[in-house]
């Protein structure tokens, strides 16, 4: 993986899973929900509209690919996809699998329950589950 600067809060809260053609895929270190964050590898961008049209389209495509992959893998009742950026200004897009029986349903996941970090074994299992996604892009 090429060197790419991540916001320190993203580095603290997440684990890098891999790269799609434009975006880095992070796993939020909270085992309460399957929760990935897509970060375009473009520096000094805070908003989607700041990207040139071709890159906006690529981000949308990769977001759709990640959403579909996570939806199918975890049998989501609902996929929550959002780019907020009020605290972390670097452009990043949350992809959260929601289940009707999850701890926060039907409310947003932010701040609802304390984060439960993945164990080493759980993290290895998540990496294995996502590897086929990255293998598709060589």
Describe the structure.
The protein has 138 residues and is of the alpha+beta class. The protein has a single domain (8-126), classed as 2-Layer Sandwich (HIT family, subunit A), CATH 3.30.428.10. It has 3 helices and 5 strands. The chain has a 5-stranded antiparallel β-sheet with strand order 1-2-3-5-4. The longest helix has 22 residues, at 53-74. GO terms for molecular function: catalytic activity. It comes from Endozoicomonas montiporae. This is HIT domain-containing protein. It holds the Pfam family HIT.
Name the features.
3 helices, HIT family, subunit A, 5-stranded antiparallel sheet, catalytic activity, 138 residues, HIT_Hint, alpha+beta
Walk me through the topology:
Layout: H1 8-13, E1 14-19, E2 23-28, E3 35-40, H2 53-74, E4 78-82, E5 93-98, H3 120-135
Antiparallel strand pairs: 1-2, 2-3, 3-5, 4-5
GO molecular function, one term: catalytic activity
Domain HIT: 10-100
InterPro entries: HIT-like, HIT-like_sf, HIT_Hint
At the fourth CATH level, what is the homologous superfamily? HIT-like
User: Low-confidence parts lasting 5 or more residues at pLDDT below 50?
Assistant: none
Number of helices: 3
Computed structural class: alpha+beta
Q: What is the count of distinct domains?
A: 1
Instruction: Walk across the major sheet and give the strand order.
Output: 1-2-3-5-4
The helix/strand order is HEEEHEEH
- Principal-axes geometry comes out as globular
So what's the CATH class?
Alpha Beta
Describe the biggest sheet?
5 strands, antiparallel
CATH topology: HIT family, subunit A
Which architecture per CATH?
2-Layer Sandwich
Helical content (DSSP H or I, runs of 4+): 25-40%
